[in-house]
Amino acid sequence: MLGFLKNLGYYYTLHLANVWNEKGSMVKNFIIVLFLSLFFVLPAQATLVKPPNVDQLANLSKFIFKAKVIAKNTELDLEESHKIVTYYTVEVLEWVKGNSWTGTDTLVFKQLANGNFEVDGRMVNQQIYFPQYDINETWLFFLPNPHWKSGLVAPLALQYGAYKVSVDTNGQESLPALEHR
Fold it and tell me: What's the pTM?
């Protein structure tokens, strides 16, 4: 497929160059070649992202903890971020790194919400693709400091900074998503 696209781009480059050459301008040829080169090369390079490994997540995190989600509330945040956010209330079961920023093991953190919402009588589509957590689920979170102004916080590297804890029939906990990386 890539060879076909290169040949197609080469053909159109030559064809357009010949047409424009008749009317004369080296600059026009250069612009066409540059445009077609960018058109066929850039999209392929923008799709690859290497996820961080656990050591990188641990080093970059200010807080690492295992917690159970006990409440969640989505609303328009007019105080700080002026975006639709979800407030997650979690009960920390185990601290791995850092200490509670509230002084208790019940924390509330917020992140941008995903979905369609009605705000002031109009529909707002906010597709941010942050992880979402359901009540009674247990997660291992890798979090940075909350943003100084908006108060928003999201797991580091988005979906790579939060891992759902699974429990088997013997009560043994595991992190399946982390084990498959």
Answer: 0.66
* Contact predicate 149/143, CB 8 Å: no
pLDDT per position as a tens digit, 164-174: 999 999 989 98
H or E element, residue 141: strand 138-143
Amino acid symbol at 67: A
Overall average pLDDT of the 154-179 stretch: 86
pLDDT band at 11 (very low <50, low <70, confident <90, very high): very low
Q: How far apart are CA 35 and CA 40, in angstroms?
A: 9
DSSP bridge partners of 109: 88
What residues contact residue 140 under an 8 Å CB cut-off, 6+ apart? Answer: 64, 65, 66, 96, 162, 163, 165, 175, 178
**3-state SS string for 76-114:** ECCCCCCCEEEEEEEEEEEEEECCCCCCCCEEEEEEECC
